[in-house]
Amino acid sequence: MSALRGFLWLVVFLLCGEALVWALTLPISPGVVGMLLMTLWLALRGRVGHDIQAASQPLIAVLAMLIMPGVVGIFFIADEFAGQWLAVATALLLGTLASVATTLWLMLRFMPPEAADE
Amino acid sequence: MNSGWDGLREQLLATPMPAIALTLAAFFVGGWVFTRLGKPSWCPAILFAAMLLAAALVLLGIDYADYRAGAGWLMLLLGPATVALGVPLYQQLPRIRAVWKPLLISLPPAAMLAALYAVGLAWLLGASPEVLASLAPKSVTAPIAIGITEQLGGVIPLMMGGLLITGVVTTACVGLLARRLRLRDPRVLGFVLGVNGHVIGTVRAFELGPTAGAFASLGMSLTGIFSALFLPLAWRLVGL
């Protein structure tokens, strides 16, 4: 029951996000706005209730499963982009390699060592 | 006999349940294979699961569009699941607040370059504008990326496939580089995973621990917000 009550909270925050996106015509998804609202609300309250904890943990655990229906589409559109697969594969493989290296370098360059805050 | 089976098949496929069952089954079997292989950092569980799912759809002769319509019910949960990421974010708030400056400095160049590298490489190799628009949001979390791709005039299935490959490659690269450079800092690894590898990177980060997971959630959402503002603008400037 606890997880279901928590789920209701998550959906309510999602709907608040939806309303904000609509009202301010934000280009961001309602889920992300809802997530920021949730963080803000928890910060104001100062603790995570048992219900929300019980609902959010299992949902986060299956996050990867929730995008599976979309991502398997790649296996069914092979014919449509015949001749461009080399470009797509190179862009995704090398591009990602380069961007991971860049982000890592930026983080190591600007991030202070951990010990300071613990 | 045969027509009886066809009748049953039709009856079952008229509901979204087979699509949901297949997705769940592929997810669990994929996870089982992943554990069996000793949780390799070069290949996340979702890759096994996605390949299994695709193979199952082909073997059962289920049309992807039909499957997608049924599994859409499952994807509805993506909204509440994204909201749920606010919980680890809140729990790690003190550690995030301590380093908000380096995070904010690193994010815009990192998110811009993630798109630029891919689009630039594809453009050099002669990809069509449609393909370029589908590759641009490759590091953005799915619900935001769908909106961006529509705005830029890309193809959603191609973009989603790009998300899968980007997530998988990010997980592999971060694992490799972390071992090479002996990096342990969960804040750095988590943020890099989230900025580049969206949900798939974030899932990997949670495997490393709650701190890495929270920094990944933060990186993922900041990249999403930034890209949603930046990419359509950049597209208009370049005139694509």
List key phrases describing it.
heterodimer; A: mainly alpha; 5 helices; 0% strand; extended; B: 240 residues; mainly alpha; 13 helices; globular
Structure, described:
With 118 residues, chain A is mostly helical. Chain A has helices at 2-24, 30-45, 50-61, 63-71, 85-110. Chain A is extended. The longest helix of chain B is centred in the C-terminal third of the chain and has 29 residues, at 210-238. Chain B folds into two domains: 1-76, no CATH class; 84-240, no CATH class. The mean pLDDT of chain B is 88. Chain B has 13 helices and no strands. Chain B is mostly helical and 240 residues long. Chain B is globular. Chains A and B meet through helix 1, helix 2, helix 3, helix 4 and helix 5 of A and helix 2, helix 3, helix 4, helix 5 and helix 6 of B.
Q: What's the layout of helices and strands?
A:
The complex is a heterodimer of chains A (118) and B (240).
Chain A (H helix, E strand, L loop, with lengths): L1 H23 L5 H16 L4 H12 L1 H9 L13 H26 L8
Helix pairs in contact in A: 1-2, 1-3
Chain B lengths: L1 H12 L3 H20 L8 H16 L3 H12 L2 H7 L1 H6 L1 H6 L1 H25 L4 H7 L6 H11 L3 H25 L5 H23 L1 H29 L2
Helix pairs in contact in B: 2-3, 2-4, 8-9, 8-13, 9-11, 10-11, 10-13, 11-12, 12-13
Order of helices and strands of chain A: HHHHH
Distance between the termini of chain B: 56 Å
Helix content of chain A: over 70%
Strand share of the residues of chain A?
under 5%
Q: Radius of gyration of chain A over alpha carbons?
A: 20 Å
Order of helices and strands of chain B: HHHHHHHHHHHHH
The outline of chain A comes out as extended
Report the major sheet of chain B: none
Please outline what is shown here.
The complex is a heterodimer of chains A (118) and B (240). In chain A, 73% of the residues lie in helices and 0% in strands.
